[in-house]
Design brief:
This protein is mainly α. The protein contains eleven helices and no strands.
């Protein structure tokens, strides 16, 4: 029943086959989320964050994203981490952001791997560790994250990378993935 509620919530949110009703979507997503449906919790977080069908609230969004993250939803882990990382609607907490980015990265979320790499690069919320930053950026780059490929290109250009592709290859990949900064650095 919880999956059905979640699907029906999505139909109401999208207005597919029924008149669009974000409040009804929130009600259905809540029922499904309370029943343990991670996708419904994730969607509920999005609606609270945007203020669609419910009062806009980053704190409520965080609550539902954390619940979905606990159930293994990578996107929810990323979104919750982002709120902690940026201090959006919650107190900034880089340590908690790093924990949540790590969970999402383990599940293959390229953006989370990139952001976790950045935290290791800067030493925010974790002990500064260039080798871990490179490791996470490589994972993100392989998964198609343009910014991670660009960061690796910069490190390769500066001679920091001992292994891996030449800087031009990282910049080329970053450019192909849409990072315009990298396009001017390719041959």
């Amino acid at each position: 029943e919880v999956k059905a509620c979640s699907r029906l919530g999505w139909l109401y949110y999208e207005g597919k086959g029924v008149e669009r009703d974000a409040k009804k979507a929130v009600e259905l997503f809540k029922r499904a989320c309370e029943g343990g449906e991670a996708e419904a919790c994730y969607n509920l977080g999005i609606l609270y964050y945007k203020g669609e069908g419910a009062e806009k609230s980053a704190a409520e969004a965080l609550k539902y994203w954390e619940k979905a993250c606990e159930a293994g939803h990578a996107g929810a882990c990323y979104n919750a981490a982002y709120l902690y990382d940026e201090g959006k609607g919650v107190e900034k907490n880089a340590k908690r952001a790093a924990e949540l980015y790590a969970r999402a990265c383990e599940k293959g979320h390229a953006g989370a791997c990139h952001n976790l790499g950045f935290l290791y690069f800067t030493g925010e919320g974790v002990e500064r560790d260039l080798s871990k930053a490179i490791e996470y950026w490589e994972k993100a780059c392989k998964a198609g994250h343009a910014g991670a490929c660009y960061n690796l290109g910069v490190l390769a250009e500066k001679g920091v990378l001992k292994e891996g592709a030449p800087a031009e290859e990282y910049f080329k990949r970053a450019c192909e993935l849409g990072d315009r900064r990298a396009c001017g650095k390719t041959g």
